[in-house]
Design brief:
Elements (H helix, E strand, L loop, with lengths): L2 H31 L5 E18 L5 E5 L7 E2 L4 E5 L2 H57 L5 H54 L2 E3 L4 E6 L6 E2 L4 E18 L11 E5 L8 E8 L4 E2 L13 E10 L10 E9 L4
Antiparallel strand pairs: 1-8, 1-13, 2-4, 2-7, 3-6, 4-5, 6-8, 8-12, 9-10, 9-13, 10-12, 11-12
Helix pairs in contact: 2-3
Amino acid sequence: MSSRARLGIAALIILILVTAAILLWTPAKRVLFGFPAELRNIVVSGNIEAHQSVLNFTEVQAPIVYLPFDEGKYVEAGTVLARVDDRFYRQQLEIDRTNLLAALKQVAVNQSNLAAARKTVLSDRFDFAEKKRDDALAGAQEKIGAVSHQARDLAFTAAAQADATLAHDQALVSVARNNVLLARANIATAEAKLRLDQITLSYTTLRAPFSGVLAVREAELGELAAPGVAIFTLDDLDHVWLRAYVNEQNLGQVRLGEKVRVSTDTYPGKIYPGRIGFIASQAEFTPKTVETHAERVTLVYRVRIDIDNPTHELLPGMPANATIALLKSGK
């Protein structure tokens, strides 16, 4: 046999051995090292959607006097989007501020009354003590005949009247003390009402709760704004999501939180990382507007694929595809 033939046979044997080693090593490494089961991909299609917030005025009803932005404008969080006529609410605030000042003055007046009542009681105590001494002295003098019985009765009556006056003025002190407490409670009520007025006044200004794009403007200058009446719809473009549908037979191979690759025809070749953020618990009929790359089946499960979108390249309504890695059945 020629050397060339021997080299050819040797090369063929080496090729067979390498192929066999690869075929044997692939299942063996799963058993020995716990490598994951072989994966395959499915591609689902859908449209990009954004988390939306319908913005309206709260607890106020008045004409719109400031409305600077149109649809499609990007606004930062905290941007003033609209204002209503706030003259009524400012006037109510001033009325309640005046009521608070009156309540503060009433406390001062009641405290003065309490101080006066206490001084009166102190005077009554001295007077009662003096009348009581006079009564005791008159009683002693009556026994020795130094004063008449009538004089003794007058001293006793004066002491009794002084005692009654002291009790009456002590009751007035209690009333004055309660008036001070009531006035202080009125201050707390007035302060709470003032804080409520300030909150209500803040509702006359509509601000963007987060950064996003004004998708819909539903009001015009001069229109009457009221609670529940939509002014803007704000889209959060920083965190968009893809609505897609997975066939029923693939549902068990999709995992919540699983990483997904998203692509669009608008930016060919660019991959956006996403993850499965929701899997419906009930099946539904495949929407007519949805096309999948897998065989169309009657029942599908809706999934939401969350996508970070810091550059705002992905816009609501944009068609997109998502590649999902599935575990092979039986693995």
